[in-house]
Design a protein that fits this description.
CATH topology of the largest domain: Aldehyde Dehydrogenase, Chain A, domain 1
Low-confidence stretches: none
Number of domains: 2
Mean pLDDT: 96
Number of strands: 20
Shape: globular
Distance between the termini: 62 Å
Helix content: 25-40%
Largest sheet: 7 strands, mixed
CATH superfamily of the largest domain: Aldehyde Dehydrogenase, Chain A, domain 1
CATH class of the largest domain: Alpha Beta
Length: 458
């Protein structure tokens, strides 16, 4: 049995039955059978209807889902409501894809050999999707994996994070209530980690959608069955550059949100802030004052801005990394342990470049502030790590903005906004060690299709 507890105080919430190897085999067999029965594929209008009904069902449970997110995942209730609203919109966006997606005409008659032919492509579902998700957005990440599969007509088996399975289980129940026939959308709660690897590498899987740590994601990719495609979404050590022309009054609030939203447990959370030396002192003073006012505590309360980390072990790890940086010479502002899972927000000023917090994803309520004198140096430092996802620059100089946007090694560069900005219809992808493939609901749907060309000779 899987025990589910509240992230904040470890209070028991629920107990769920787990799946053994036989259950996994049965689910994969059922999913594969659904895909192979082409006569049983749902028509586009049927899939759209399921998605629209699903969106309505989730909307009716908006507050219930938000509280569930706060309890199992520790995200503050106000932010959990935003996550639920995004999930509802994402479900509708997946339905809307079916109005515009389609193949293309391939030109013929361009050579004598191609005369008398017409050719076009159609998009078909790729096959069984194995989806492995993360804890930090326990509803919206599931939506990003399940609804593109529904839209494209792929059977999907989704494994939520062990710490946050409840939103996933309830969403899949609502998928079935919305009219999805049995076997098309299933959950997997494996009794052991070994089963997760067997799940991803099974030859019946056509596409792996993985959201989680790079160490796990790359290992799963290395063990995929021949022909299985995948998309991996890992994390980064997101850099922000504060140019000498930046408006200090305008940047404090977005950086506070980008750095400490969900206690920093976001794959594109602001982590490294490079501030021009002429602004560094005033920035640190203003930023520290704002971070000191963040309300930390029980995520079920509407006024809470920063909640707990997902498990005590994660709080232990972040505390060790902070201590290491301070021992190496960093100046610590804030910080401290408030409970087994809750840390007070911390700022580290000038941690050593080789400190863990300067090189690896913290995934906790910590930001690092560095000074720079030349923009070239700041961009070089921002690009210095093997992980690269989203980055940002704050400036009032258009030339600087355009130059940095071109030179920052990132899949997305935000100008005058924090690195954690995202909409659910935009491309979302890590580069290099930070991921493989492209996420975002439209892009994920595209990844879950196979293009077939048809050539007609008249």
């Amino acid at each position: 049995m899987l025990q589910v507890v509240q992230a904040f105080d470890r209070e028991h919430i629920a107990e769920l039955p787990t799946d053994d190897a036989a259950a996994l085999d049965h689910k994969l067999t059922v999913a594969r059978a659904r895909f192979e029965d082409r006569g049983g594929w749902l028509k586009a209008h049927q899939r759209m209807a399921v998605l629209h009904r699903l969106a309505d069902l989730v909307a009716r449970q908006r507050e219930t889902f938000a509280m569930l997110i706060a309890r199992e995942g520790g995200k503050p209730y106000t932010d959990a409501l935003v996550e639920t609203d995004r999930a509802i919109d994402g479900i509708r966006a997946a339905a809307d894809l079916l109005r515009t997606r389609g193949g293309t005409e391939i030109p013929m008659g361009l050579t004598p050999a191609s005369e008398g032919r017409r050719a076009w492509t159609i998009l078909e579902p790729i096959g069984v999707v194995a989806a492995i998700s993360a804890f930090n957005h326990p509803l919206n990440l599931i939506v990003h994996q399940v609804t593109p599969a529904i839209a494209t007509g792929c059977p999907v088996i989704v494994k939520p994070a062990a710490a946050t399975p409840l939103c996933c289980v309830e969403l899949v129940r609502l998928v079935q209530e919305a009219g999805m026939p049995d076997g098309w959308v299933q959950t997997l709660l494996p009794e052991s980690r070994d089963l997760s690897g067997a799940f991803a590498s099974d030859s019946r899987v056509a596409f792996l959608s993985f959201i989680g740590s790079g160490a796990v994601g790359w290992r799963l990719r290395a063990n995929l069955a021949p022909g299985t495609r995948c998309a991996l979404e890992h994390g980064g050590v997101a850099p922000v550059i504060v140019d000498r022309t930046a408006d200090i009054d305008a940047i404090i609030e977005p950086l506070a949100k980008g750095g400490y939203y969900h206690a920093g447990q976001v794959c594109v959370s602001v982590q490294r802030i490079y501030v021009h030396e002429t602004l560094k002192d005033i920035f640190v003073e203003r930023f520290a004052e704002r971070i000191g006012r963040l309300r930390v505590g029980d995520p079920r309360l509407a006024e809470t801005e920063v909640g707990p980390l997902i498990q005590p072990a994660e709080a232990d790890r972040v505390a060790r990394w902070v201590e290491e940086a301070v021992t190496g010479g960093a100046r610590l502002i804030g910080g401290g342990r408030l409970s087994d899972t809750t840390l007070a927000p911390a700022i580290l000023v000038d941690p050593p470049k080789q400190a863990t917090v300067s090189r690896e994803e913290v995934f906790g309520p910590v930001t690092c502030v560095f000074g720079f004198g030349d923009l070239d140096d700041a961009i070089r430092e921002a690009n210095a790590l093997p992980v690269t996802f989203q980055s940002s620059i704050f400036t009032r100089d258009l030339a600087v903005a355009l130059d940095a946007a071109e030179r920052l090694d990132a899949s997305a560069v935000m100008v005058n906004d924090h690195t954690a900005f995202r909409t659910d219809w935009m491309p979302f992808a890590g580069r290099r060690a930070s991921g493989y493939g492209v996420g975002g609901i439209p892009n994920t749907a595209r990844e879950m299709t196979a293009e077939k060309m048809i050539v007609f000779r008249s």
